[in-house]
Write a structure and sequence with these properties.
The protein is an alpha/beta fold. The protein contains 22 helices and 15 strands. It comes from Xylona heveae (strain CBS 132557 / TC161). This is RNI-like protein.
């Protein structure tokens, strides 16, 4: 008896598989029957950027034998060919119409992969795609005797040409990423009525009145990410772009690397003060640091990330009025949930008033580039934020004393909702007792990273009570035994599925044999589908004092 499911049920099944990002099951559905092919392929190409063969999805490329690696790159080629050819109406199904994300960075990474040459390059550029096999100017100047297969591809021109044809056939596209040329972006945007997000390698792509086209075509546009923008007029151009967008529409802005964004750009962000929910600004230079008070009206923020390149700039001592204004701005962000402050000399002083504010309830906090010593007030204030679920601290542990360690241990142990603790630096003087005291009441903990010294098997029993723990990373100097590690693994249960156990600075005297490491990996994989890493602090065959002068 054959059971036929209604089309709407098939679409619901494929939708659920898409939500789970189950690429493999969807692929099997697509090749199993004509009835399932259309809904399965629609879901597959909605998330083509997460396919196991793409740059963003693959952890296997480059690993293992050369044959397997070449097979992966061939599949990568075929995926992109199917996308491009479908935009030319050369495929059975219109794959392009299903695409929601077009990440041209992935295509560049394919072109720049060391295996993209010879037969694989020819496979990609065969037939209707031959027009995009454009040689670089350098190759064109090379001697004619040079083999064609060795000539360098002009990947910028190739991607530009491919993007031109693909964007004409992707009406569902809501996210565009890559190195888009300034001459192309206004034209592409005008074809994408559902566009919500731009991720640009260079901010220069916005220097052509793109905001006008966005306003005319993209009613849902809300997110901008720029990797780098170093032009002299970058600040003025960003300000013009922000002010040119419909007011109160931008929800997300990220500047990832170096830029000249400062006062004008910051002030223009107030044009979106009620809509802006997430702001990420990296590599803030001196002028940008001094301009931070310009953001004072952006108080609807829920996520804030600030990183500076001016490590020695002490705002509190040299620009106290600006320092006070920044604190005032942060405290006015009553909806703030996650904050990250990196490389600010005054990071603890900026954050402490925020932590003690009864109207602010953080779920995530990250502080990097501060001194563990002398900041007890900040560490005490941490305990006031009882909603914290994630905390990352990266500090300088020099001159730390016992009271500093006790203060931070006491505060962390009181944050009973914590799911992630990452103590990346500054905790070199933690011992096993400190670690056990931190986790004693943290029943929801899923991820724990810490340094320390003299960590031995007696910590395993307290850690085995953490039924949700799935990442345990010791950068601490440890002296675990083979039996102690195995005993811990045997106590893991279903809540620990996927456990990543990393012991990265083991004392050479506690060295495990290759057979013991293999057994631990096998048992961990068998019990909870986990993985195990083990590294020694130093080579046991090399003296600890080798190389020191007399």
């Amino acid at each position: 008896m054959t059971i036929t499911l209604p089309d709407d049920v098939l679409h619901l099944i494929c939708e659920e598989l898409w939500l789970q990002r189950d690429f493999n099951t969807l692929f099997q559905c697509a090749v199993s029957s004509k009835v399932l092919a259309a809904p399965a392929l629609a879901s597959l190409y909605r998330m083509h950027n997460a396919a196991p063969v793409t740059y963003s999805g693959s952890e296997e490329r480059g690993l293992g034998n050369a044959v397997l690696a070449e097979q992966i790159v061939r599949k990568w080629v075929l995926l992109w060919r199917s996308i491009i050819l479908s935009s030319m109406k050369k495929t059975l199904f219109p794959y392009c119409r299903y695409i929601r994300t077009l990440d041209l960075r992935d295509l560049v990474n394919l072109f720049e992969d060391s295996r993209f040459k010879g037969k694989i390059r020819k496979l990609f550029f065969t037939g209707d795609l031959a027009r995009y096999d454009i040689e670089s100017a350098e190759s064109q100047r090379a001697p004619k005797s040079k083999a064609k297969s060795a000539r360098t591809l002009d990947s910028v021109s190739a991607v530009d040409g491919i993007g031109e044809v693909v964007t004409q056939a992707t009406p569902m596209l809501d996210k565009l990423s890559g190195n888009v040329l300034p001459s192309a972006l206004p034209r592409w945007v005008s074809r994408l009525p559902r566009l919500q997000s731009l991720e640009l390698l260079q901010g220069a792509a916005l220097e052509t009145g793109v905001e006008i086209r966005i306003n005319e075509t993209c009613s849902s546009f809300k997110s901008l990410s720029v990797f780098e923008w170093r032009a002299p007029d970058a600040d003025a151009r960003l300000a013009s772009f922000l002010q040119g967008l419909r007011p109160q529409t931008l929800e997300y802005l990220e500047i990832i690397s170096f830029s000249e964004i400062q006062a004008q750009g910051f002030e223009a962000l107030n044009h979106h003060r009620d809509s802006l929910k997430e702001l990420r600004l990296s590599n803030l230079n001196t002028e940008a640091m001094l301009a931070l008070p310009k953001l004072k009206d952006c108080t609807a923020l829920e996520t804030l990330y600030l990183e500076t390149t001016t490590r020695g700039m002490d705002l509190e001592a040299t620009q106290n009025d600006i320092f006070v204004e920044v604190i005032s701005w942060l405290r006015s962000c009553k909806s703030l949930q996650e904050i990250s402050i990196k490389k600010f000399v005054n990071g603890p002083a900026l954050l402490s008033p925020l932590l003690l504010d009864n109207d602010i309830h953080l779920t995530g906090l990250e502080l990097e580039g501060y001194s563990m010593a002398g900041n007890r007030a900040f560490h005490q204030a941490l305990a006031h934020q009882q909603n914290l679920e994630r905390i990352t601290l990266k500090a300088d542990g020099e001159d730390v004393v016992a009271d500093d360690l006790t203060t931070i241990v006491n505060s962390l142990s009181k944050l009973t909702r914590l799911r992630v603790i990452r103590l990346l630096e500054g905790c070199e003087y933690f011992n096993g007792r400190h670690l056990c005291d931190i986790i004693e009441n943290l029943a929801y903990l899923e991820e724990f990273w810490s340094g320390g010294y003299g960590i031995v098997d007696d910590i395993w029993k307290p850690f085995s009570k953490l039924g949700n723990l799935r990442t345990l990373y010791f950068s601490a100097v440890t002296a675990f035994t083979y039996g102690g590690i195995l005993d811990y693994i045997y106590h893991l249960d279903t809540g620990n599925k996927g456990m990543a156990l990393s012991i990265m600075n083991a004392d050479p005297d506690s060295k495990l044999s290759d057979e013991e490491i293999a057994t631990i990996r096998e048992v961990l994989a068998d019990r909870v589908d986990g993985r195990f890493e083990f590294e020694l602090l130093r080579d046991p065959d090399v003296s600890e004092f080798e190389g020191d002068s007399d």
